Amino acid sequence: MTEPKQLVAVIVTFNRLDKLKVTLSHTLANRFAHIVVVNNASTDGTDQWLGSLADQRLHVIHSEKNLGGAGGFHIGFKYVSEQLNDADWLVCFDDDAYPEANVVDVFESLDIPDGAGSLAAAVYLPDGERISEMNRPSRNPFWHLRHFLGTAGSGRKGFHVRDSDYLASGHIEIDTSSFVGCFVRVRNIRQGLIGLPRSELFIYADDVIYILESRKAGFKHLFVPALRFRHDCETLIDQQDVYHPLWKVYYTYRNRLELYRIASTWLYPLVLLVKIPSFLLTVRHYDPAERGTFLRLARASIMDGLRRDYSKPHTEVLELAKVEQS
What we know:
- The protein is of the alpha/beta class.
- It folds into two domains: 7-231, Spore Coat Polysaccharide Biosynthesis Protein SpsA, Chain A (Alpha-Beta Complex); 247-320, no CATH class.
- The chain has helices at residues 17-28, 46-51, 68-83, 103-109, 145-150, 186-190, 206-216, 247-264, 268-281, 291-307, 314-320; strands at 7-13, 34-39, 58-62, 89-94, 97-99, 116-124, 172-174, 182-185, 220-231.
- Strands 1, 2, 3, 4, 5, 6, 7, 8 and 9 form a nine-stranded mixed β-sheet that branches.
- α7 runs parallel beside α8, α8 (247-264) runs antiparallel to α9 (268-281) and α8 (247-264) runs parallel beside α10.
- Belongs to the glycosyltransferase 2 family.
């Protein structure tokens, strides 16, 4: 008997109406059973534009405040698992990403192992040829230490999937990936076998952490290069660990500490000895006028990350990120 594969798209948006229009155009052109859009309190006319759309597959959720990508996906996953009883799988992505034309057809043709809890698509830049580096799937080096140590001289290539893997005809078992083109088996959420994305993380690392936790729960995560997405991203294409606006520094480092804790387990103290100095040394890549603000944000993020304190309001983070005028 063929496994049911009713697929639902989940998109989170905040103040990027022009990009959302492109994303929804490509999404609506696919045969998704439902399309859930979580509007994170946008102020650029997103709510009015979404209200003008008539497609019956569209479910729009308007949040009263900006909850970040993590909070938005938490709402979207929860809605699918509780309100859309015919949903078997969901696939999530940001408002600057979109599926290629045949994604649903390819998905329905897959023979997905029962033990697979999630799938990762191949994500490219808008030209459809260059790989989006920020969305390159990976293995957890701490779970594959022998392999990682054998390729240590390769840097991040030692545990990320290779360019040649994007040409594979089947699937490749991995440990984690981003939320752009991430397919999740909904029954695992409904049955309480995995949870929802952690809304308190706001942005950054919430996706990697979510898939790592699913892997720890015993479910496989598969890279399926035949599933293709495109990402019109503006961050870290050149892999420079520099963030603007500066408030992003806080969430980046705070949440990375949680990611390293989950990924490295008993090696976490050793990881801290390497990573915390590397965070602070990044100050050299910032404009001199920004360095004091960067260090203030980095210190706050490290302290909160070590305490696992995720209570700081976004308004307070924005206040910390103000550049002092000399």
